[in-house]
Amino acid sequence: MKTSPQKVFQQYLEAQGLKLTKQRTSILEYLLRAQNHSTPERIYRDLSAQDATLGRATVFRTLHLLERAGFVGKILFADGSHGYEHKFARPHHDHMVCVDCKQVIEFTNPTIEKLQDQISREFQFTPLWHTHEIFGRCRKCSQKAVV
Amino acid sequence: MKTSPQKVFQQYLEAQGLKLTKQRTSILEYLLRAQNHSTPERIYRDLSAQDATLGRATVFRTLHLLERAGFVGKILFADGSHGYEHKFARPHHDHMVCVDCKQVIEFTNPTIEKLQDQISREFQFTPLWHTHEIFGRCRKCSQKAVV
DNA sequence: ATCGTTGCAAACGGTTTGCAATTCG
DNA sequence: CGAATTGCAAACCGTTTGCAACGAT
Q1: What is the pLDDT of residues A61-81, one digit of tens each?
Q2: pTM of the predicted model, to two decimals?
Q3: How far is B145 from chain A (nearest CA, A)?
Q4: CATH number of the domain that residue B44 is part of
Q5: Residue closest to sugar C1' of C17 by CA
Q6: CATH number of the CATH domain containing A125
Q7: For residues A126 and B139, what is the distance between their CA atoms, to the nearest angstrom?
Q8: Domain shared by A72 and A130, yes or no
Q9: A82-130 confidence digits (pLDDT tens)
Q10: How far is CA A81 from CA A73, A91, B78, B85, in A?
């Protein structure tokens, strides 16, 4: 009994009284294909190449919808801008972002997660979500950057 | 031999062949006064109340200058916007941001810092800086939010 | 048929730039 | 004095919105 992202999305829409349109489907599938760093503009450019009538507004609207539903999340870039990544069948993770080649490396560390909960508890703070991004240079770019 | 932020700033400017203007001084002093969550717009509004000729562009230009120099840093808000905080005589810290009252609680955890370095090393990633923000509800807002 | 959804273009908010006038050193 | 800096307004970019046409159920 496999539940594909598409099916999950469809069920979500149905439950909310919303409709499954071809635009929503193609944006979802774009996100599933592209591992990460999909920006609204890139999604728009790539998809409107096939389907010339797709509008920028729909990309934004669908991204919000998916974000509200918890199917996609934001990822920060070093310059302060951001992109999106889907969260289907992917455990929570944080990011190391290369300031040179823009590559994104995912990491998880259970100890850090545990410490965050502990710190929150100390302050009687109720954590809902977090972002944790390490900016720096990946292995390759570190080598190149050596003076 | 005390070195005030003002003096440090002045020396930095001098070293770069830049000038110390009254606008730059007043923006720096604003940031020193306001603990945190200063947004460009708020800085502009508050300061231009006294000095009606101050321009928005100068606020942005000065903020960039201070950021490049490492005297101020960005702080993310829950809605994706951001503000600035000065970094004079304040050790590195991360943030817990209340999604309701917007309050920012600072925290530091040496173990987390150490783990970050360790993870970076594993990937042969050279960390330059990081952001780590926990979003949730502060003690007071957690209580209010109980259904 | 109904109501959600779309594309469009105009509006938006935050940030940036070009330029002539000003100010610091 | 000369170079850096400023204020202004226009330009810019990413995102949002109002609206009439369209499409899914």
Answers
A1: 999 999 999 999 999 998 889
A2: 0.85
A3: 11
A4: 1.10.10.10
A5: B57
A6: 3.30.1490.190
A7: 7
A8: no
A9: 999 999 988 899 999 999 888 899 999 999 999 999 999 999 999 999 9
A10: 14, 24, 15, 19
